Amino acid sequence: MKERMLYYAFLISGLAMLLYFAPREYLTSRKLIKTGIKTQAAVVDMVRSSGKGYKKRKRPVFKYTDESGNVNRYERTNTSIFDKLKLGDVVGLVYDPVTKVARQDSFRGLYLGTIIMLLAGVVFTLVGRAGVLGRIE
């Protein structure tokens, strides 16, 4: 019975990723592309990620000036061992002046969250569905 509950949890989690989190990420990116303001941002800090195995990973903190002249900071929430950003690097940034949502103006910054949510959602949904239907013993 406990195993079956675990499979239901996988199924519900997968469906939530597919039906809520992935579309939310996509719609946020789409709104930024359509109505957001593009600017240049400089990497001003690298915040070390916490947790086991994350000793070498750092999240960049960007500083940018919005259209009204205010200086804002944006700290990216994800890290990667493939990220080559260094202090002082200048990158494109898209931000919404109303909600203060900002993303790096790149494929990774705008769409990687959506792709990860879709892939994880499919895997969780398939595992949960197989378990609920009794195809996994």
Summarize the structure.
The relative contact order is 0.24. The chain has a 5-stranded antiparallel sheet.
Structure description:
The chain has 137 residues and is of the alpha+beta class. It is built from two helices and five strands. The chain has helices at 2-35, 107-132, and strands at 37-48, 58-65, 71-75, 90-95, 102-104. A five-stranded antiparallel sheet has the order 3-2-1-4-5. Helix 1 runs antiparallel to helix 2 (107-132). The longest helix is centred in the first third of the chain and has 34 residues, at 2-35. The model has no long low-confidence stretch (mean pLDDT 89).
Q: Which structural class do you get from the secondary structure elements?
A: alpha+beta
User: Roughly what is the average pLDDT, rounded to an integer?
Assistant: 89
Q: Largest sheet at a glance?
A: 5 strands, antiparallel
Contiguous low-pLDDT stretches (5 residues minimum) are none
Question: Per DSSP, what share of the residues sits in E-state strands of 2 or more residues?
Answer: 15-25%
Give the strand order, joined by hyphens, for the main sheet.
3-2-1-4-5
What best-fitting shape do the alpha-carbon axes yield?
Answer: elongated
What is the end-to-end distance?
12 Å
**SSE pattern:** HEEEEEH
CA-based gyration radius: 19 Å
State the helix count: 2
Helix content: 40-55%
Number-wise, the strands total 5
